[in-house]
Specification:
Layout: H1 6-13, E1 18-22, E2 28-31, H2 34-38, H3 53-62, H4 75-83, E3 94-97, E4 103-110, E5 116-122, H5 124-139, E6 143-147, E7 153-156, H6 158-164, H7 168-171, H8 176-186, H9 195-206, E8 210-216, E9 222-229, E10 235-241, H10 243-267, H11 270-285, H12 290-297, H13 299-318, H14 325-357, E11 364-368, H15 369-386, E12 390-395, E13 401-405, H16 406-423, E14 429-437, E15 440-447, H17 482-492, E16 496-501, E17 507-513
Parallel strand pairs: 12-14
Antiparallel strand pairs: 1-2, 1-5, 3-4, 4-5, 6-7, 6-10, 8-9, 9-10, 11-13, 14-15, 15-17, 16-17
Amino acid sequence: MWEEAPALLASLDALRSALTILDADGRLLYANAHLNYLLRSLPPHDVLIGCSYEDVIRLEIAGGEIAPQALAAGASAFIARRMAQLEERAYAPLDIPLADHRVIEIKARKVKNGHTVLLWSDVTAARAQLARLEEAVALSAEAFAFFDSNDLLIMGNDLYAHLIGMPLDELIGKAFPEIAATVAYKGRILLDETPEAWLERRLKGHREPAGATTLRTDTGECYLVRDRGLKDGGRVIVFTDVTDKFRAETALAEQQGALADSRAEAEKQSGYLADLTARLDQASAKVDSAKTTLLRTMGHELKTPLNAILGFSDLMATLSDNLTPEQIREYSGLVHQGGTNLLKMINQIMDLTKISAGRYELRRTSVDAGGVLWLTRDVFAARAQARGITIDADRCPVGLMVDADESVFTAMMHSLVDNAVTFTRAGGVITLSARICEAGVAVTVEDDGMGVVEDDLARIQEPFEHGGRAEGAQHAKGAGLGLTLVKAFAELHGGQLVLSSQLGEGFSATVTLPSAPLFAA
């Protein structure tokens, strides 16, 4: 049969993989020339014709081709494992480690006439790369899981197995829906809904190109879970431990509740605070210089925290003998909050002063814009949820790197999202997104709130300006320095801030920063 197709045989000899064909009795009908390239100790491939497959394997062993660890259980066990590939439905490929540290992968397929086709490929480089990846995943402080295009788990680390609650070797090969069901029904995570509802929502998110969710375990840990599709159709899932951050947010929520309870008592002192406000207003009205004009503009922002500090400290001094420890803690907390707000505004003014004087030094590094947006979403999630506001960060792909000072970039994003949460109506949606543009990477925070008139967009980027043209408009919601600082920091990075809005149609702020430079590995 082979003599009738010399052109085909010449083509098969040119393959960079070895090809062998066995008859129904396991004897060699054909072998191309590449077999001798892979296994140099074997006789010429045409001489092997007629030999049984077992004879070929024994020649490999006798020629010293096979690595000692592959023969650790004995030559008979090694031969039996090789011969098992000739059985029906034995589709799994087999890796053969060689004595010279190469790895040969053998794939076997039965054809209709009872023959078996074996394809021999050198996969040394691929296996080495896989080994390095497995080592990196094993050493990672985060839980990793990789799924193939059939959604079967092909790699993970011990931390992932610990979170699932099963040994890793039992998890390998399982489909993601089965693993997710195990998590849902085994009680490893705390659910705010039925296991069925959680599982349906988790599987839906798993089918999206990219997504993130938060899980809390029965032992108190909290994890940010990022689930992302790969180019080959597979998926990677990464678990990041955010337990400390979750606990801090919980404590903050409790503190905010305690402050809310103290408001009724604080209102009793409104007369005293009003008197302080009147005194400051009278002092501001007497000044007409450029410096005092600026102070008059920011007077309300200064007075609000000062009123709280002076009023409650005076109250504590006057009624110290009659206050309970709980009241002292409440009032001291309000004094502390007022001081914090005042310090924040002073720091903002100092930052603007440094930038204007050209003395603000940036510590530039490669920063993942999408990652910062995801973490910013988490910071404001509780506050937004309290008002029924949704923060959508699904358009924030991980891996868009900007050349920026990480702490400054994070503060910019916090300021924009803080504004959006403040001015978005209850039940609204805030959308975070990051994309590549001609100037670098554009990061956008967009809400569906009331917005501002287009003529106000330039004005509200100036210090102490707010949406609306009435003097002091919206002062209670901030000092009017947030957008000014974001604009100044964006320009300091060599980027820009662009605002877009129409009254009644929401508000959009886009920061464009240079992309981080690429370095050769």
